[in-house]
């Protein structure tokens, strides 16, 4: 994904234009049983027009955050503001926030057109205008022919699009999506990802999207907020999340990552020297880590360089191949370091030299900028 | 292809074999008794077995004027064959035409002295015994009731009478069964409606409660199920009687000056039936409310529907199948209900089942009780099919 592009961390996110905060959480706490907090001290700004993804494993607090935004759950503490006014305590039906549900929640006793007209009826929109807007939105999702069908007569992908249309038809200030593609097969899911993304760009809507699928988050979002243990571990543009994970959890959760435990031996600006069980690794970090602290060094399998490069790369790992997996376009190797640690290496099939038979010895190189020093601690409750 | 069909045929045979015992059981112990009982409504065997010779002789009569002398002779010999025959014939004919019991009794008395008489003598003596034996109408009636099948009882069960070869609907005070059928429908409908009105909120609360609370509430609904229906009904009589707790409370509160008649009338019948039937409504309805995904409630709110409108437009339509299923069970059970009206109803609150029981156990007119049952069963089947036609598509749309 990133190749060997060597960049220092950006200060700004992916999109530069002046951002207006549409919605903000501050110091929000939520607990269902009064003991364990599902969401803890959450601060989050959602910008006008952005596509923000809340990504995390189940139980990380991402869905609860969405539910508080939709008005189905109320925070125990803290404030949530939308357009500058607090929405804590405002019932869901007055919030004017669109939502696409995981199982679509299309009403089975209504036709597609009736489903789409429902939010307009609730807002007292006249019949003529209702029909016109239903027609328009069906054109937007490219399903003009299904108006009179029942939701059960539609395919999964069609239902998904109608659910999307229903969330958009009343022109909400914010559209929430709760794992909307989870029920679709892989091919359709990838197609819908592009479609949702295009709709977002065309209509200029603000989207908050919840998923546990990291590749979905990386493909679709302007920004990704990685949730774990009720806290945001990192919120940044997809490439920052992938290339410069803030901590061990993010590094581990997003993509494959090799993580070696080590002790900081020295540092100079961003650059650190870490001793990982006998192998000295040069790596970067946004924060400075004190000499002698225990840290993790993370580096991606696909950033491995096979040949001895010129100019030389600082990190050389002498390994013994223990397992080789053929994956068509690339090879995945499990390799054992001299100290017993195991790392994964991903190399392009085309660039393959030698056959990397299990048991054979070889060397791989990593750029210092592709190795990241991470604190062993992650944000917890 | 042939292999496939053969495999499928083997599977078919195997599954048929598996359901065969159940099928045989149903056939022998369920369908056969019901069918044979229902066939009685059209059967003439009671008369043809009583007067076999006359039945055969009448089969050759053309129905014009009076039958020939041998028919009279056959009747004489049939009446002399057994004393019981005369009684059965008299009772059965009397049910069709009042006064026939006497006519038969007179013929029986005359027949005793005619054991060795010629056919001509038999005819003359019988007509002498009662002039009705000289009337073509009497013989026509007898011929009609000795055919292969008769519609008399099926017609009588809906108050239709054959008079001089014309069908006539009994009305006013003569009407007997139609008002009772209507009363049965009215009581069942009222009970169903009240069950829905009372049961819907109950089902709703149970479906929405936490599992712990829900199981306690469900227990309250189900406890009556565990009690004998007789005990339950007796308990209601105690509660509702003149000096029972309800009346005492009403009088103490000054709401009534004298004890109100709460039992042995329509009020008592409906009250007790609602109590008996309520679980049959609450259970399916509760299930259908529970089956509604939480996300529908959320989606309705999210799309701008305040709670009441969300209920009206989204939730209520989705509970209609459960409500319909429960209501249908209550209605069907109510229509065939017997014990509650018999115990806590007055004479004007008896439902059709009571009459079926009466004709089966006391009046021993099985033909009539079977005709009433046939109409009841037919009516219910028609109702089931109608509801499938009308409500089925509506429900399929929802589910």
Notes on the structure:
The complex is a heterodimer of chains A (381) and B (399). With 381 residues, chain A is of the alpha+beta class. Chain A contains 8 helices and 19 strands. Chain A has 2 domains: 21-248, P-loop containing nucleotide triphosphate hydrolases (Rossmann fold, 3-Layer(aba) Sandwich); 257-375, Beta Barrel (OB fold (Dihydrolipoamide Acetyltransferase, E2P)). In chain A, the strands form 4 sheets. In chain A, strands 6-7-8-3-9-10 form a 6-stranded mixed sheet, sandwiched between helices. Chain A has a 5-stranded antiparallel sheet with strand order 13-12-11-14-19. A 4-stranded antiparallel sheet of chain A has the order 2-1-4-5, covered by helices on one side. In chain A, strand 7, helix 5 and strand 8 form a beta-alpha-beta unit. Chain B has 399 residues and is mostly helical. Chain B has 2 domains: 45-150, no CATH class; 177-398, MetI-like fold (Orthogonal Bundle). Chain B has helices at 2-39, 45-50, 52-59, 69-81, 83-96, 100-112, 119-129, 136-145, 152-156, 177-208, 211-226, 229-240, 245-252, 266-290, 294-302, 307-335, 339-344, 352-361, 366-398; strands at 160-163, 166-169. In chain B, strands 1-2 form a two-stranded antiparallel ribbon. Chain B is elongated and about 95 Å long. The interface between A and B is medium-sized, with 27 and 22 residues.
């Amino acid at each position: 994904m990133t190749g060997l592009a060597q960049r220092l961390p950006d200060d700004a996110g992916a999109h530069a234009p002046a951002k207006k905060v549409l919605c903000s959480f501050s110091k929000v706490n939520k607990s269902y049983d009064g003991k364990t907090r599902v969401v803890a001290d959450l601060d989050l700004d959602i910008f006008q027009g952005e596509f923000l993804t809340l990504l995390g494993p189940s139980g990380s607090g991402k869905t609860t955050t969405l539910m508080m935004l939709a008005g189905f759950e109320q925070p125990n503490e803290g404030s949530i503001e939308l357009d500058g006014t607090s929405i804590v305590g405002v019932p869901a039906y007055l919030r004017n926030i669109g939502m696409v549900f995981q199982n679509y929640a299309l009403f089975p006793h209504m036709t597609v057109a009736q489903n789409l007209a429902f939010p307009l009826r609730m807002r007292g929109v006249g019949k003529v205008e209702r029909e016109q807007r239903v027609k328009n939105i069906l054109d937007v999702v490219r399903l003009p022919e299904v108006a009179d069908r029942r939701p059960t007569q539609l395919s999964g992908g069609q239902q998904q699009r109608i659910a999307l249309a229903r969330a958009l038809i009343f022109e909400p200030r914010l559209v929430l999506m709760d794992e909307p593609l989870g029920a679709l097969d892989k091919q359709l899911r990838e197609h819908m990802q592009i479609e949702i993304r295009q709709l977002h760009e065309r209509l200029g809507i603000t989207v908050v999207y919840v998923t546990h699928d990291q590749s979905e988050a990386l493909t679709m979002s302007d920004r990704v907020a990685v949730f774990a243990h009720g806290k945001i571990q990192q919120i940044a543009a997809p490439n920052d999340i992938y290339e410069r994970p803030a901590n061990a959890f993010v590094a581990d959760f997003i993509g494959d990552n090799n993580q070696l435990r080590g002790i900081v031996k020295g540092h100079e600006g961003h650059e650190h020297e870490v001793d990982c069980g006998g192998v000295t690794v040069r790596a970067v970090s946004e924060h400075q880590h004190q000499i002698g602290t225990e840290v993790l060094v993370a580096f991606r399998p696909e950033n491995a360089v096979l040949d001895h490069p010129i100019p030389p790369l600082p990190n050389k790992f002498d390994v013994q191949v223990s397992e080789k997996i053929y994956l068509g376009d690339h090879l995945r190797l499990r390799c054992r370091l001299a100290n017993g640690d195991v790392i994964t290496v991903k190399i392009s099939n085309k660039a393959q030299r030698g056959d990397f038979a299990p048991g054979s010895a070889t060397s791989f190189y990593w750029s210092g900028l592709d190795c990241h020093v991470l604190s062993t601690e992650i944000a917890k409750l | 292809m042939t292999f496939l069909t053969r495999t499928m045929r083997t599977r078919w045979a195997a599954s048929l074999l598996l359901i065969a015992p159940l099928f045989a059981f149903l056939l022998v112990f369920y369908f056969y008794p019901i069918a044979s009982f229902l066939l009685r409504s059209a059967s003439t065997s009671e008369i043809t077995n009583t007067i076999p010779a006359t039945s055969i002789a009448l089969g050759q009569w053309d129905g014009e004027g009076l039958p020939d002398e041998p028919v009279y002779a056959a009747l004489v010999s049939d009446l002399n064959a057994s004393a019981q025959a005369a009684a059965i014939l008299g009772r059965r004919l009397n049910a069709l035409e009042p006064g026939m019991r006497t006519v038969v009794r007179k013929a029986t008395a005359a027949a005793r002295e005619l054991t060795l008489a010629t056919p001509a003598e038999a005819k003359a003596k019988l007509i002498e015994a009662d002039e009705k034996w000289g009337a073509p109408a009497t013989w026509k009636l007898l011929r009609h009731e000795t055919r292969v099948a008769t519609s008399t009882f099926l017609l009588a069960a809906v108050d239709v009478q054959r008079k001089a070869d014309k069908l006539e609907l009994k009305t006013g005070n003569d009407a007997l069964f139609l008002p009772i059928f209507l009363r049965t429908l009215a009581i069942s409908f009222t009970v169903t409606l009240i069950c829905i009105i009372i049961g819907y909120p109950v089902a709703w609360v149970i479906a929405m409660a936490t599992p712990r609370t829900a199981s306690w509430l469900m227990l309250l609904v189900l406890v009556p199920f565990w009690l004998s229906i007789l005990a339950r009904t007796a308990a209601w009589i105690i509660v509702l009687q003149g000096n029972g707790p309800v009346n005492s409370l009403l009088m103490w509160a000054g709401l009534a000056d004298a004890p109100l008649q709460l039992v042995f009338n329509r009020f008592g019948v409906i009250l007790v039936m609602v109590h008996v039937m309520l679980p049959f409504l609450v259970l399916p309805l509760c299930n259908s409310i529970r089956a509604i995904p939480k996300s529908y409630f959320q989606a309705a709110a999210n799309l701008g529907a305040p709670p009441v409108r969300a209920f009206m437009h989204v939730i209520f339509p989705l509970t209609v199948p459960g409500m319909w299923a429960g209501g249908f069970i209550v209605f069907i059970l109510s229509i065939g209900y017997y014990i509650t009206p018999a115990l806590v109803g007055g004479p004007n609150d008896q439902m059709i089942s009571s009459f079926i029981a009466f004709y089966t156990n006391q009046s021993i007119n099985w033909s009539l009780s079977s005709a009433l049952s046939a109409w009841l069963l037919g009516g219910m089947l028609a109702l089931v099919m109608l509801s499938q036609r009308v409500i089925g598509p509506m429900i399929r749309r929802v589910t």
